[in-house]
Structures are given as C-alpha cells and as structure tokens.
Design goal:
The chain is mainly α and 203 residues long. The chain contains nine helices and no strands. Helix 3 runs antiparallel to helix 4, helix 6 packs across helix 7 and helix 6 runs antiparallel to helix 9.
Length: 203
C-alpha cells in the first residue's frame, strides 16, 4: 500500500495532472496533504522497527507512542472511504475547499499567540524561560494557546504579582499591569474578532 501510494503521488506530479495535484488550490497545502497520505505508512514501519529492534523498555514506549499517532492518522484517513455517501461526501468536499482560507486564519491566530507569548514572558518571567525547545514551546506557545478556549491561567499569575504573592515571577506591578492590558487585547483579538470572523466565513 505504501509503494502504491508513493507511485500514485509521483505519477500525478510527473505527468502534471493539475486537476489532481493542485486540487487544494495551494502548492503548500497539496504537499502537506500528500505527506499526510504517506505519513501513516512511515509511522507504522518506524514503530515496527522500534518494537522489534530492541526489547528496551524505553524503545517499547517510543513504539507505542508512534503507533498511537499512526492510528490517529488512520482514523482520519478513514473519512476518505465515506466520501461517496450522499449526506457526508459534499461536506467533506466543502471542508477540503475551505482549507486554504482556514490556513490563513490559523496563521493569523498563531502570530497573535506568539506575540503575546513572547512579550508577556519577557515582562513577567524575565530570564526564567529556559532557552530550550521544551522551555520555549511550554512557556511561549503552550500556555497562551489555551487562551483560544477561554482558559486564562495568566490572569491568576498577574493578580498574584500585583498583590506581591508570587515568588515564581520576576515582574513588578507596572509590568504585570502592562501584561494585563496585553492579555485583554489578545483575548479581544483572538476570542472575539478572529474566531467570530471564522464562524462568519464558514457558515
């Protein structure tokens, strides 16, 4: 199946079947969709290698994680088999055609979250964010990400700084107040404007 999928993608690209290769309207999205089709096979064999390559417990855990992600992709790919259904197929085509617009909104939300994450941590957690991949992802991207769903954990931290009850932050009252203003602005921008605009566009 993996060889057939790779052969099909190469054949479509080599013969310039533009009605198939550029079906998403964007080269980037088309490449990502083709990677999405191949990735389940790659993850399956990668997990298989970790599973039988060694009996180390850590490698077995790695194999289980890889296979779990692989199973998630296979479940998502199963939507391809129901695309012929009359009540579900048109909705899947609509979703596919909206990917380009959706990607633009996701990009704007990502920029807004990154801006708040960097600026707020520079104010209230100065020199406390480890300059590692995990530290940057956890402090700058992960915590501000939950602002989209209304989980404003930063508000409690800022209130503690203003009340001088927090020993885990370096910001003073002025910096915490400035971050409060930024938090209010980004909640308005992300939760109300962008998400409402997405709802208006796709309904």
């Amino acid at each position: 199946m993996f060889c057939e999928e790779a052969r099909r993608i190469y054949h479509e690209y080599d013969t310039r079947m533009t009605e198939r290769w550029g079906s998403t309207g964007s080269t980037v999205l088309t490449v990502l969709s083709n990677v999405f089709y191949i990735m389940p096979y790659f993850l399956f064999y990668l997990g298989l290698g970790f599973r039988y390559g060694s009996y180390d417990e850590n490698l077995l855990t790695t194999a289980r994680i890889i296979w779990a992600l692989d199973l998630e992709l296979w479940y998502l790919r199963s939507l391809k088999f129901v695309i012929a259904l009359r009540f579900l197929g048109p909705k899947l085509f609509m979703l596919k055609n909206m990917l380009r617009d959706l990607f633009a909104f996701v990009y704007m939300i990502f920029i807004a979250l990154t801006a708040y994450g960097v600026v707020s941590r520079a104010l209230i957690l100065y020199k406390q964010v480890p300059f590692t991949g995990r530290g940057i992802f956890g402090h700058i991207f992960y915590e501000p990400y939950w602002l989209i769903y209304g989980d404003v954990s930063d508000k409690n931290l800022l209130d503690d700084i203003i009340n001088s009850d927090s020993s885990n932050a370096t910001g003073n009252d002025a910096e915490a107040t400035a971050t409060h203003v930024l938090l209010a602005f980004h909640m308005l921008l992300i939760n109300i404007l962008l998400l409402s605009l997405i709802t208006a566009v796709f309904t």
